[in-house]
Design goal:
The structure holds 2 protein chains of 2 kinds.
Chain A lengths: L1 H21 L3 H21 L3 H26 L11 H18 L11 H4 L1 H14 L5 H8 L1 H22 L24 H23 L8 H27 L2 H24 L14 H37 L7
Chain B lengths: L1 H24 L3 H22 L20 H32 L4 H10 L1
Helix pairs in contact in B: 1-2, 2-3
The chains are: A mainly alpha, B mainly alpha.
């Protein structure tokens, strides 16, 4: 049964990919990519990756699509029709693809329990020993926050940096008291005349935000954690922005607060690491946080996940707000 | 069964190459970003599929279950997705800046404007 679902989903994915390549209209391309992401989230479910599916559904089908659409709203959605260069790209792609397909003949078969990736001592340790060491049922959570804590710290820092980068590129220059320097040229974007969408959205938004808090807190026991909760929370705020406009959304999540939260999450993460060192352990060795090593590990993981959640939610919300604000501000005159 | 064992990987390679083709052939910068994202998402699916065990289940400890899929690829890809959207946003905001400055987001037009100045 799983095989049939798998094949159907893969056929859908291929169809959408081909349609994306052939499509001229950029609006259509953005929507097709959203569908592609949602389908791949379904594939993740078939592949037993609940946490990944949750993130991909919120990010790919929700946030990336909205970011692309707001870019297109500012730039125009029609690619210039002209002779497409296809010979060289097609050649390169065919050769690369053929080389990769040739390489797969040496790979272990799909789902093989004896594949090196499954029999490697590290995999065995993560699946079998982690239960005794941490006592957390969801193996993904201690792996993300504890065993690979350095990696996750790096990833959080990348998200932080990307957020700063976007603000530097399209954010507004602000005075010290937080009021923007530039004037608005455009109208506020909001779905004023879509009564049904607004009412349904109003009912949905609290549920989305509550759900985000739930998966943040419940990450130890079920699919969830900081990254997932962060993107789900941000998509709730994004829905609010789409329905009620930039000005209303900025009252709910003021820029000054978001800006500080971006840094606060990462500081919390790094701060726990420094605290561990001050308590006599290694950097990010949570066992020093409590008398009992296991309790310390739990506290550490909860706090780290909270740090990740705060930074991710704040960065992704800031991204959406910055794009919407750029759109609302209208065409910017070159400042030389 | 032998065929099905590799079929998944071939589909993922096809999807990756579709994204790669779009990246190479498109002149429009937004199209290139979509191509990059297509490529990226296909790599994610490929990566996670390497951790799948036939008969295994979601890696959450439960009574009476002995076979779990490998959680390591899940962790790596989970963080990569969020980093992916952040870097996509950075790319898109660069496009917005390019559009503001050059008035176009077609690669060849930008090149010819650069040559002209």
């Amino acid at each position: 049964m799983a095989q049939i679902i798998d094949i159907v989903l893969l056929v859908f994915l291929c169809t959408v990919a081909v349609a994306t390549v052939r499509m001229r209209d950029l609006f259509g391309i953005a929507m097709l990519f959203g569908i592609f992401s949602l389908l791949s989230a379904s594939v993740f479910v078939v592949l037993d990756a609940g946490d990944v599916a949750m993130t991909e559904a919120a990010v790919g089908a929700g946030l990336t699509t909205i970011l692309m659409l707001s870019t297109l709203a500012a730039t125009g959605s029609r690619a210039h029709p002209r002779a497409v260069r296809w010979k060289l790209p097609l050649f390169v792609v065919t050769v690369t693809g053929a080389a990769l397909v040739y390489a797969t003949t040496d790979m272990p078969r799909f789902g093989d329990p004896n594949a090196p990736v499954q029999t490697h001592p590290v995999a065995k340790h993560y699946i079998e020993t982690s239960q005794e060491e941490t006592g957390i049922p969801n193996m993904v959570t201690p792996l993300l926050a504890s065993y690979r804590g350095f990696d996750t710290l790096g990833e959080t820092a990348v998200v932080f940096t990307a957020g700063i980068g976007v603000l530097a590129l399209i954010g507004r220059r602000r005075k010290k008291d937080g009021t923007p320097v530039d004037e608005n040229h455009g109208e506020d974007i909001r779905a004023e005349h879509h009564a049904v969408v607004r009412v349904v959205g109003k009912i949905l938004i609290p549920a989305i935000l509550l759900y985000a808090c739930y998966i943040q807190a419940h990450g130890d026991f079920g699919p969830g954690g900081g990254f997932q909760a962060g993107v789900v929370f941000a998509s709730g705020l994004m829905l609010y922005l789409l329905l009620f406009g930039v000005a209303a959304a900025a009252r709910v999540a003021p820029f000054a607060v978001l800006e500080r939260l971006i840094a606060l999450g990462l500081l919390l993460y790094g701060g726990i690491g420094v605290l561990n060192m001050m308590l006599g352990g290694n950097f990010l060795d949570y066992r020093t946080l409590a008398e009992n090593a296991k309790d310390g590990l739990h506290y550490g993981i909860i706090l780290i996940e909270l740090g990740v959640g705060i930074t991710v939610a704040a960065v992704v919300t800031t991204l959406v707000f910055a794009f919407a604000d750029h759109l609302q501000r209208g065409p910017v005159h070159r400042q030389d | 069964m032998e065929f099905f064992g590799l079929f998944n990987y071939w589909v993922f390679i096809f999807l990756m190459m579709a994204g790669f083709y779009l990246l190479l052939s498109a002149r429009n910068l937004v199209k290139k970003i979509v191509g990059l994202n297509l490529f990226q998402t296909s790599v994610f699916v490929f990566y996670v599929s390497a951790g799948k065990v036939t008969g295994g289940t979601v890696p959450i400890q439960q009574e009476g279950i002995t076979s779990y899929s490998n959680p390591l690829p899940h962790v790596l890809i989970l963080t990569a997705i969020v980093v992916g959207v952040a870097s996509t946003a950075l790319g898109l905001s660069l496009i917005l800046k390019i559009k503001d400055t050059y008035g176009t987001m077609e690669e060849d037009e930008i090149d010819s404007l650069d040559v002209a100045t």
